Amino acid sequence: MPLDGFTVVDLSTGIAGAYCTRLLSDGGAHVIKVEPPQGDSLRHWSASGADTGQDGALFSFLAGAKHSVVADPDTDTEFVHTLLAGADAVVWSGGSAVAEHFAPERIRRDHPRLIVTAITPFGLHGPWHDRAATEFTLQAWSGGVFGIGRGSPDLPPAFVGGQVGEYLTGAYASAMTLTSWFARRNGAAGDLLDLSMLETQILGLTYYPVTYFEMLGRPWRDARKVTVPGIASAKDGLVDVGCGTAQQWFDLCAMTGHPEWIDEDSPLSITQQANEKAEEIYAWVKEQTVEEIRDLATAFRIPNAPVANGANVTELDHFVERKSFVTNPRDGFTQPDRPYRLHPVELRPPGPAPRLGEHTERYRSSAPAARPEPADDYRAEALPFSGLRVLDLTTFWAGPSCTHPLAMLGAEVIHVESARRPDGTRLIAGIPVSEPQWWERSPIFSALNTNKSGLTVDLQHAAGRAVLRKLIATADVIVENFTPRVLEQIGLDFDSVRALQPGAIMVRMPGFGLDGPWRDNPAFAYVIEAASGVSWLTGFPERNPYEPYSVGDPNAGVHALNALLLALEHRDRTGEGVLVEAAMVDAALSIAAEQVIEYSAYGALLQRDGNRGPTAAPQNLYRTADIDEFGRLDCWVAIAVATDRQWEALRDALGAPDWASDPALATAAGRREQHDAIDARLGAWCAERSGDAIVEALWPVGVPVAKALQPHRQAELEQLAHRGFFEEVAHPVNPAVRHSTLPVRSTHGPKQFHRRPAPLLGEHNHELLRELGLSDAEIAALEADGVIGSAPG
């Protein structure tokens, strides 16, 4: 397996660290989970409150194939140090007595050869480093509760349910750990990876709002609007039908029997046009079955999906045919299979989770041999992916979320577009085509493509395909996210790639995979979220679910990055090329795993509940007295009480009113039972105060609280400024504006992630084609024939 011989000590608690080490274990890593005598709190967790017995089902899923060692922090210090000395990496998060005894900086000092991946809410340093937080309050600080205009104006904003931020953090932690491991090929050794959960939420739940706002002078959306049609009620259930482009709107008009609605010259956006016709569209949907709508939408090439949940997702024909779910080998419930497939690479088959302390005596009697110390001449300043050439055939958000981290960390990434059909993100900024170089003014394209070179090639032209084949022969990695039929139509399957470059790694990122009945369906984030169950838990119980309209894409990108790093490990060991199938929906099924696990293990169907959730009580958004920047009484704070001690702190901060002193509220169960009454009291208290005043009253005493931030205000957070999360990027066409970076700070840097702006369309055509051996006359002929170009047309 790719990570055979890679030993990881797991000093984490909670989902993020457990999912990180689960992904590493899937790749073949040997994971030793070190727990306090009472065990990891995740062993006793169930989102539905089910009696978990000895171990909960979610723990059993996340801990599969790991080893469990019990260590008492008061007496077993040397034992833990022995385990660390025999490891290659350690994954750490606070929350257990063992973890608190071995702080990340101390581990780094005592074991300088180790990769230390530290997962914290805000980072290890900075003004917020020790502040209380939950996933819910982090979503608020990130702007994720507002999303990309998600929700309805008559209701509060809504967070994305299902603890997706924990899984996103785990996926980033795994990818960054593997990146640091890969960096040893360039002479690096040892590392402290300081990972911020807030920053992963920003990257996973918002769409580069700071860059968008600063470049265009307006937020993406300034009000909540229900997507039309989005998730709608059909005759026999819920269906998600997307309308993300002008062509999809035109096709939707035709599909619903209203071609007269098509107006290519309308001054309204397609979103505005769809909202104008919402009542008629919903009436049409209500008269059809889910299957009828999906058959029609698929024929019209309109993105669509059933709305899955824990009860029905395993029965959907596509997942049945692809064997997307497997049986837990120890406890017999149903769980998602691995989030990617690698050919011919062997990944670890599902293994049983360990009982508490099952392997303690084994390691006390025979600890892993200590690893050698690093050489004195290692080059700490080398970027991890220096020397790696990546051919980037991706577009929109998911694919670039895989290739952009490579470019920020030193790879030579060549972004290939067609002048005839540029990257879709160039076209969504709303810049009139009458403006000079309008296609260069997209903040989304800029945010996703810094440090890359730009080449335009029309792959529908034989000469363009010939150029691409020459380029493939020079590449280490090829990444694409078309629907499967696109590359097949131009004769560029994996066998063809291997004939040109035997050691090539080809990463394919189709929405629904390379086989199965949905394989050719177009996939945008919202249909991936619906089909996997992510949407089901987002929104209010009295309404249809909301489309998160965010996490499906970047989640696919970071999982594809994990798969690519495993493929690189395999190639380094064997010299073989690898086909990586990183379907967007498989990555989404993995972060929605808790729904099917709870249903199959306990018969519990998890439900959306507005801004309440299973991890805290009370948990909600409360309106403040502030007027927002748009003149509306629409400012909110998030409060989430996750422990009884936090409840005591909240009660005291409120002045210990009689209602909060009720003994029944001293336990989570009592607070949950009286959640409505607590919300009414807290809502009244918050309504009389500013958001700043509420945060200042609650946060210093340890209550998780956050202002629900408008996403484009992220750069105003002092913690992000301290960590340098945003960097200003100059551009030849656009003003210099801030761009987000990666959610991790490493011992080895880089000091600056964005070294040059995103490429202009075809900016490096001549440079790259000359490198391939083409003469100036041949390049001129390609330009004359429209095979390459520097402007849409």
TrEMBL record:
Q: Which stretches does the entry tag as region Disordered?
A: 327-375
The family database entries (InterPro entries) matched by this protein are listed as: CoA-transferase_III_domain, CoA-Trfase_fam_III, CoA-Trfase_III_dom3_sf, CoA-Trfase_III_dom_1_sf
Keyword Transferase among record annotations: yes
- Domain of life according to the entry: Bacteria
Enzyme Commission number, as recorded = 2.8.3.-
Return the Gene3D superfamilies for the record. Answer: Crotonobetainyl-coa:carnitine coa-transferase, domain 1 (3.40.50.10540), formyl-coa transferase, domain 3 (3.30.1540.10)
UniProt keyword list? Transferase
Which Pfam families does its entry note?
A: CoA_transf_3
Report a single Gene Ontology molecular function: transferase activity
Q: What is this protein called?
A: CoA transferase
